[in-house]
Batch of 4 targets.
Target 1
Amino acid sequence: MSDAVLRVEDLRVAFDTREGLVQAVDGVSWDVAPGRTLGIVGESGSGKTVAAMTAMGLLRGARVRTSGRVLLDGDELLTASPRRLQELRGTAIAMVFQDPLSALHPLLRVGAQIEEALRAHRSGVSRAIARARAIELLELVAIPDASRRVDAYPHELSGGMRQRAMIAMALANEPRVLIADEPTTALDVTVQRQILALLRRLRDELGMAMVLITHDLGVVAETADEVAVMYAGRIVEQAPAAELFAAPQHPYTWGLLRSMPRLDAPIGAELVPIPGRPPSLVHPPSGCRFHPRCPYVRERHREVDPPLEPLVGAGADGHRVACLLSEPERRAIWTRLAQGAPE
Amino acid sequence: MTELAAVERLVKRFPLTRGVMFRRRLGDVAAVDDVTLSVQDGESLGIVGETGSGKSTLARILLNLLEPTSGVVRWRGEDVTHARGARLAELRRARQLVFQDPAGSLNPRKTVGAAVADPFAIHGLLPERAARARRVAELLEQVGLDAALANRYPHELSGGMRQRVGIARAIALGPELLVADEPVSALDVSIQAQILALLRTLQRELRLTLVLISHDLAVVRHMCTRVAVMQHGRLVEVGSVEELFRAPREAYTRELLAAVPRIPGPAAPPSAQSSSSSST
């Protein structure tokens, strides 16, 4: 998309470990436009969080090898100076995490933390104004009784309220991009529903671009416009959300869909687990990285590494998949699977 | 069906205190508040509820791991609320718990083999080394693990493998009732399905009665024949899976169901419309 506010291009991130070089992210590109949500789905070790943390400049160090580009409007974040990064974080790009207790300071009142976030970027803001703004932000994220809760300590709030407080802190300086990493995973379903509705509302009202990282296909379906499915450090499929769920193309995506229990399946229906487990990122499989777990593997797939390519007739922003099966083959297989056939 | 286990008018209160040095007792919270529920022999009963609903407390009392404030715990018709000593040891063999976090329930300094052999050591069974090692190998294979993993340590295993070890321990003594408390919540989607399939297979093969505690309604619907919904320590609604998911009676159950994010696209077998999915 040309109007993207955040663009990740051919990002590679590797960690030097005792076991060898762990290629956590291996050539990933995505972008997100104002007011839109990109959902990034994957299991642990797929690289979804590493890519986002690298984009935020949170993963730097002697043992981290990074290449590619991360463009936030005019700034290149991978090479930005620590000082420039500090300026951009909060004001241009912010992140919320799964566990608010690890992001909020336990001994500081919630309001004081939001005020600090505000004053860190605007030295001229008086304490009184910062406090008023903190209360406003707590109201924005629908914390009831905000003028009282502003003086609460994190432990005095419930999990859902803490998550709201962390979102308020992330929004303090009206970032253009919000990266939310499993923002509702630790929450009850009824609270999850409220938080997702809140994020959608804030995205629309503030025109933020949002990157939603999650393992939960249901959460993605309800929130994202565009979905990228990651496996072993790569994007294996990317499409507009409705398209991805209506006509998924990658065997891994099929596997994820078929291994999730769902409320609209016939009672007694069997789940179909994906056999095996995610590969080592030190010695990834040859050819297609999914081939050791793929029910449709052919000899050639053990050698040829498929690129992420648009389907026939789809534009460069349309439905893309990294799979060596032909399009008619994939369509035929998914039609069979969707009708309840075994592999 | 006959009743295997039950709780009757069960209440569990925890003291609510404030302060660290000078603890003041502010009152009580009822984690479980007047719950009566029975588990039928051979069934799989799901207990669903959100944080603080009391579902885990209820399960621990059912297994005599916690003492209730009042009420009765029954096992095969016998009042076992205050069971002690040898009777309690027998009950432990018959009723086992599978935890959410297998990492937290396995001793990091013990090998997998030693962890699975633990129940035999605790109960003084299979004293002969070779026999015990054979049984451990059998159990590991029964939960889908390579017997050679007996010499590994928990940190060398993936989350799914550790949960399999937890399950091997739980079935080691041939229990009649298995209580699984959020057994797949910490696992990746593709691994969840493997563990759920394993629990189903074991339930069938070992004729286990299963109580599955979960916040995930789709998991409970998939695994169970009957469901109990809890909120704030109380039982809101109990019913068969067919009834409760099709026509929930209570507003809270409806609210819970409505909050579950839906996955679009066909659930096999699909309805007529969804099978004609677009092909770009």
Target 2
Amino acid sequence: MHLVYPLVLSALLFCLGIYGVLVRRNAILVLMSIELMLNAVNLNLVAFDAWVRDAVHSGQVFALFVITIAAAEVGLGLAIVLLLYRNRDSVQVDEATELREQREVAA
Amino acid sequence: MSTQAWLLPALPFAVAILGLLFGRRLPGGPAPLAVTATLLSTVLAVPLVVGAVRAPTRVTETTHQLLSAGGVTVTAGTRVDGLSATVALMVCIVALLVQFYSIGYMKGDPRYSSYAAIVSLFTAAMLLVVLAADLLMLLIGWEVMGICSYLLIGHYWEHEYARSAAVKAFLTTRTGDVGFLFGIFTLGIGAGSFRISDVLAADLAHGTVVVGTLLLLCGVVGKSAQFPLHTWLPDAMAGPTPISALIHAATMVAAGIYLVARLFPVFTRSVVTLDVLAVIAAITMLGAALAALAQDDIKRVLAYSTVSQLAYMAGGLSVGGYGPGIFHLLTHAGFKALLFLAAGAVIHTVGTNLMSEMGGLRRGLPITFPTMTIGLAALAGLPPFSGFFSKESILGAAHEAATHGEGAAASSTFAWLVLVVGMATVFVTAAYVTRLWLRTFFGPSRSAAAVVEAPFTMTLPLVLLAVPSALLGFVGVDANWLPRWIGVEPLRAFAPEVGTSVVSVGLALLGILTMAVVWRRDPTGDPIARLAPAARRALDRAFYVDDAYDATVVRPTFAASRDVIGADVHAVDAVVNGSGVSAQVAGGVLRLAQNGNIQAYVTGMFVGLVAIVVSVAVLA
């Protein structure tokens, strides 16, 4: 199979993820978009591994690592989202702006 | 023994440090330590003088090299010869009596301990000047004296006048010291060494000698309170009276005259310098004496008389009278210390400095009155008191230089100037001395206080100082005594010349008589108001020299200071503040980006990342 098919697919997935992260306001959807981006990278890794015919399959190994880390990250991310919901009854990302610069505070 | 001379300044110096550190905690107060140290120095000075008397021409030097940098070698060491030993002994004795006198005078003063310590330091500095073998060591002592005089004149720093007098003394003498420093450099570099013996022996170019000595003269004029830098000395009366005695008699003002005497062979090679010195001396001598005539403050009378008498010494040196100048320095130290301490006893009793509030004090002061009378007679130059002999020797030297015009003296014209002005000053001196004597001790009492003699610690120094004031003149009448000790060449006695003596004693008596006659008509009033009512104000203000300085120096300096402050506030500060304000404004703009929306941040990151990647792809 030609290398360009998985790469195009992965690029599409990544753009989809970027779009989701930048545009969606629901924190869970943002997390899901991040997963999309990670999996696009995984696809890249596996595709290149197959194309290079690496003897030790380092591409696949990295992909496994990324999956593991993604699992941990989702665990943390969902915990944060849960706390956010408990505190604010809302998981809208653009509403959580407590750390913005206060205009009236003089330097 | 002479090699131990370094102990003389070292002892008071150590005591000064001890006194400053532990003065308040010493058992029995700070006085015993200070008096003991000065006494020890005095005892150590005696063998030096004895050695100098036995072998007057011998110069004992010790030298330790301190550092050598770029061809300039700095040495530390002492130089003991007849001159330095004699002056050192004089300094020690006056300092000892001043310390002793202070026990009574400064009793109960909250800052007595630091006062005693600084007097010790002052003594140490003067002894360093006197005994230094190296011009740079001398300079150190010279400068330490400057700071000590500042501290002591400002002893009563609660009062505004004391603070300003201290600052004035410091700044005025500093002005002269600038020239002094460069004078030392000129001579030292010209001679290739800063050691006094090397400078004296060096074959200096004529230009170097003229420039060097004229620059040194600046320092001398400042330290010895000669015109035009004399104005600090009358104001220095703001300090305690014993300090006035110390500054006027033994230290500080004597240092300038001593320096000229120390480097006298160099000075005599420059006739220009001696001419300048003669003119300065003539102006100062008469001007200060006239100013003394109209002062109401008893200490200011004495202060102007010091200025005038120092001018006699300077005049004596300028006409080649090395011996007479030093002779007058020594006798003046005796009687001026006596006069100041006696004036202190009077002030102590009456509680005021003003003669218009004294009068009739002779009855209540059985010790102060006769001793002060002796001092005043010496100041007026009446025979046989000490001042007569020394003043006579100066006038004699001036007369000789004027008529014979020897090489090592100012030109004959200037010698005549010194002689004539010196004679006129004798008349004025006698007049102001009489005025002080009559206004203080005679006539009806104008004082409210009960007149009680000062305590023992204050009267003893008076009695002790009255002896040299009366008799010290006789050490000069034999050529083998003082003239040989201090190395006068060619050797000759300071015997009064008949011609000048008759004229000057006549003038002195005339001055006394004039003042006494005027005073008798109205014993309560000020005789000068009757004698010269028109000139009185000008005399009282010392010919407005202070006012002239105020207009030409002080006020322009203040104005310039204000301009500098303005420039600092409006230019320098504006730049600093402006950078702060601009940073604040720029920061305010950047703060707008910090809006709290996480997706905006991520967008920024992503755009940045893309920009980097694209630029790498395009540029690489």
Target 3
Amino acid sequence: MPWLFTTARLKSVLRRPPVVVSILSLAAVLAFIAVSHLVHRYREEEKALARHLYGDGQAQLNSGKPDNAIAYFRAALTYDPADFSYQLSLARALRDTGRIPEAKSYLLALWESSPDDASVNLALGRLAVREGDTAEAIHYYHNATYGVWNSDPETHRRDARFELIDFLLRQNALPQAQAELITLAASLPRNPELEIQVAQRFAKLGDYEHALSEYQTILQHDKENVEAEEGAGECAFELHRYATAEKYLSAAARADHLDPQLEQELRIARLIIESDPFIHWISGSERDRRIQEAFKAAGERLNRCGKLPEAGANGTSEANPGSTGTVDVNSLRQSWNALNAKPSRRSASTESEKTEQMMNLVFEVEQQTQKDCELTDIDQALLLIGEDRDGADR
Amino acid sequence: MSNSSISITTPVAELSAVEIPSRSGVRNSLNATFREDRFFLMLAVFIGLFSGFAVVCFRLAIDWTRIALLGPVPQAHSLRVLIVPAAVSLLLAVVVIHVFPLVRGSGVNQTKSALYIFNGYIPFRTAIGKFLTAALAIGAGHSLGPEDPSLQIGAALASGLGRRMELSREKLRLLAPVGAAAGLAAAFNAPISAVLFVIEEVIGRWSAGILGSVVLAAISSVVVVRWFLGSQPLFRIPAITLARPWELIAYALLGFVGGIASVIFAKGIAYFRPRLRALPRWTQYFQPAVAGLIIGLIGYLGAPQVMGAGYEYMDQAMHDQFKWQMLAGLAGLKILATTLSFTTGTPGGMFAPTLFIGAMLGGAVGGIERHFWGAHLTGSTGTYALVGMGVLFAGFLRAPMTSVFMVLEVSGEYSIIVPVIIANTVAYVISRGLQPVPIFDLLSRQDGLDLPSMEEQREENILRIEDAMQLPAGPVLDSRETVQGAYERTQALAADTFLVRLSPTGWKFLTKDVLKKAVGEGKLEMNLGSILTTPPLPILHPDLPLDVALRYVNQAPIVPVVSRADFGKLEGVISSEGVLSKYRQ
């Protein structure tokens, strides 16, 4: 049927709307395939270029040129705008060069697309730290702690929590820092290095009980750990557990040279152990001897600090205008002389009363003179004994 | 055998009669499906798809050219940056003059010309030429953008497709703006702005007949672009806050500065373009190269940001990457570079440079304002840069509605709308005051074309029927009253024609002669309605354009103008004399 193939008929068929739509649909599909292929190839080239530029940026960053690195990261992102690591690197570089608003903008955009990503949360947390925003820092660091890490999640989570704790300590947000530390300590693996870090932070925030416990845990498994011994000794000293402090510090001193502060603490701890008349297990004569020694030390202190000026009319020391010289040395000396001259009685009650008065005077002398007169080890020991007795009284 | 054939064919015959439509039925059904209006909508979708494909390829071509010619990161003090724009421009000039003479300029006016002068005809060759030359020019660093060429490529594709379909002239004419919207939407990844721009600047009126097609084409093209290039907004801006309402004054100030900058930019183009075109023909081979050399020099000396479209630098400006002095410098240099590129006839668009200038200027003004009143302003540099984009768009391109939606769409940030509206309005008002002729109208007039000015059309004082209607000269008669009664009421009056209100609805007119004749024939007791043989009068409403009345005033001496709420309530009458006298005024 040759009439079917005439040009006129073909044209007429091709002009029919259903045929036109079919042809256009086919053309659109073909165009889609062709453009997909083209875009795919172009994207591959762009990605290769972006990787190259990103590598250059990292090299600049490693050589301490973050500004140059930013230019390369930006260029890399121009060619591969969706790449997460490029965006994160750019945001970090921006943050590290102080371009906080832009860094935040990038990071928030990343966060919106991947709120569970721990690296983004950590970067935002660090940004919040730079801005001093405690609430936001806690929020993002927690997200980073519980978020998704691509590799070694335990270490990253721990490091993130350590960062948060250090920030909270700097901000003096002690209750929050303590809560974080307790959580961290509970999840720590057996690793003395990490345990020491935790214990140090407990000590830093003033929670010596937890810190001592951490150090003791370390020492249970590693008896030779000098750092733990030092830490435990220091914490025990702060907790006024002088025998324990002496034990750990002596052990540390045997193994290693102590720093001056710890050395002094060791000396004072020993002095307290030797001088404290309130220890219940010493004999009566030993107690008397210690009281007499303390009383004598107080007298010597009065002699040593006897040149202290009396309080002026306005309550300010003339010798040391910076201090509040409220020390009435003469009155203390009179009291000391009176007690010293007082004969010992046979009566136990009167003798106990005198002992009480002597020690009260000793503590008063040490307290009154501590601001304006240099403290010796024995003075410090007596002050600490006095504090313990006050505490016991309380 | 025959029995068996009967037994087999009978059910089939029954089936065909009941369930399968006949061939003529199928044809009718197809014809109904592919009615011209519906077919036009389908065609709009295909235009959108093909425009989207074309724009994706166009953008890849620009990027590829830029990497190949200027390197992945154009840097100052690089000889490549200095030489490439000039060298490529020499080749471009030859190609434009000898191969694709219609591709000069942005493409917006060419599309308007197709709509108003050439019955929707845009040669397909123009699309190819625009694609190649604009990609080369922008990729080589000319300070031009890809949006207007995309618009023209879309329009040319649509025109070519329409011609292949042998559509009616009316439909063919409408296809160009449909393609233009698709191309622009794909280029900006912003369908609403594209539709508004085409309506504001190309078509000039809201027409329900074409709006559906324009929207469909724009959305189709954006779907394609987002499929291939991603759906994220063009710019990522920091969070926006506006703590105090009086901060809007700062944005109004930005609008003022932007309005002045728009005028400088427009006047620069208006001044240089005719003068450069008036130079001897041989100079046209070198004009783009000279422009390229100057732009290359700007890049070489330290501002490669002005080269090309510059979107990545706009993004940086929004993220506080430049000091305000640098931003102000870049805005000034971009005005110079774009003026040079555009007035020398290099193919490429003005949208991207306008946005660039706006972003830099906005950032600079924001920087200065924050320097002096930083404690009182909550907007970031990014906020001001973004608002600045809209400001220049409103002031320079004079498309106020598009400028607002464009800012919202390219940023995806809708909280900025109030500052944008305020700043854009100020810029628009200042620009209109100092530069009465909008840039696109100016360019078309320089080209010797008298295309309709959309701004003038928008602001034209339209005459309405209420402006020409009058009170009826005599009483309004009722069709139920008697002939005698009507005769007595009208006999003494000077008027010759009266309106008769029909029952229950409708109007007719009655002349004294007809009434007199009815009285003479003794029809005194008959109702007026029974002697009226003329057809009912058309009814008009006061708010209709006066042009509408012209179609009806010749059908009767007077035409009733009635309330839209009550067709029986007469607001006035209109006559041919009244209409003409109003037009004569």
Target 4
Amino acid sequence: MTLFERVYAGVMRAVWRGVLVFGLVTFPVRLFPVVRPHGVRFRLVHRDDSGRIRHRRVCEVCREEVGLADVVRAVETAQGRVVVVEDEELARVPVAPQRVIDVVQVARVDEVDPVVLGRAFHVEPEVAAVGSYVVVRDALARAGRVGVARVVLRRRERVAVVRPRGAGLVVQTVLWEDEVREPDLGFLDGVGAVSGSAERMASELVESMTAPWDLSVFEDRFATAVAGLVAEKTSPFE
Amino acid sequence: MRSVWRGAISFGLVTIGVRLYTATEEHDFRFHQVHREDGGRIRYKRVCQVCGEEVAFADIAKGYELDDGRVVVMDNEDLDKLPINTDHAIDVLEFVPAEEIDPIYFQKSYYLEPDKAATRPYVLLRTALEQSGQLAVVKITIRQRETLAMLRAREDLLVMHTMLWPDEIRKPEFDFLDGETEVRPQELKMASSLVESMAGSFDPGDFTDDYTEAMQKLIEAKAEGAELPEQPEAEDTGEVIDLMTALERSVEQARSARGESARGQSGRGEGKSAEKKPAARSRASSGGSQSRASQSRTSRSRASGGLAAKDAAKAKETKEKAPAKKRAKPA
């Protein structure tokens, strides 16, 4: 395997299994992460002896190294009290069903502000569910709409959109309303109207630089440069 | 708000000095790790696997491991020599129609604020983007990484969305895509009715993060030494029905929920807002959600493709939770 192949090799593995619920139509699906980061992956090493850096858990109070079994989750209250939360307690926190993508609403595509979009997943139907999957996909595509669903990913409750994309469906998480900051930028105060001629010129410039959407014409020169550097430094070893 | 980046948009021969502000902030519940015995916070110590010593930050380098286990150590000088754009520029490469953009590429969002002297060209670019319905494709270097991004007019502001590189998007390799799947017209028609009947305006404020709220309650309860409530188990009363029946019943259910909701609102004379968000409202009005709830308890059913009736049943339970916040909102 060449360096590049190794870097780009990525096996699709399902990260979630469950059912998609759309009205009373329910079918089993699997989710696969859409993103496969490119670029060279480094690890941290000790400069003197190239030894790999390990992270050891050390207690701030007793200064001893602590095994995973003796580590618990905790929250510090405003008064500085440490509240320990055990796994069993966490398991009892009422969370929405873990294995359901529950479509609760249907919205227009252009209503979803890109600011709120989060992680995306390819949705694959289980063998028996292809029929339902295709029907839901086509119905959404025809209407130009997306499903708005509740889903639990890694015990975190999330809202997500279910969207037809090519021959498949994609689920993309959405931020909660309070996770989007309101811009508070006063720079617009006292700005007058833009002059008509400037506006026309700007529009013309936009027009002249307009191209169809195709990101593949752009290259991540930095990632390529890092890969080249690694290859260069590697060659004396081989 | 503190800016995270400072530089300039270059757009043809126009340069617009701007600052970036993070537009989003996840409210994930963050726990500390503590030592069970003494409640002491856990800190991570960086230890070298070879010499066993704790290593200071200054002595840590980036390493690339070869197939045979040998490690190439990269020095900062090596990385500094790389040809990256460090001149704090947002280079406008081209413009693309907004509707052509695949949302799968969107990553992080930033608000752009112009420097004092740059307000006019900023407003100009924003206006030009808005009027043309275009987005600007730009390149920007953030934290030593070259990133593709889009500039978009969003209300009074320019917003920048960082994008994935095309080769970072996996292609779905699903076997079912190879075969032809026949869609029966009547099924598609019924599914389209279902889509129509569930249509509403998307408003993130319609949804509440019940888990985070429950977690906060748990912490509060523990802080006072109170007992935790037990979680009731959802019952499984799944009835297996075929896809067409499931679609038909879903449409009926969605329509009747909508009808009840409209009646519930009419008493307050809020016909206009009831029209605005039909689907969300059907769950919002207490009358609607109660009838939904009782319906889902008595005739819980699923399509034949389904395997996990129990989970589907639980899903119905959650729908009852969804309206909590909406109900509190004034109509």
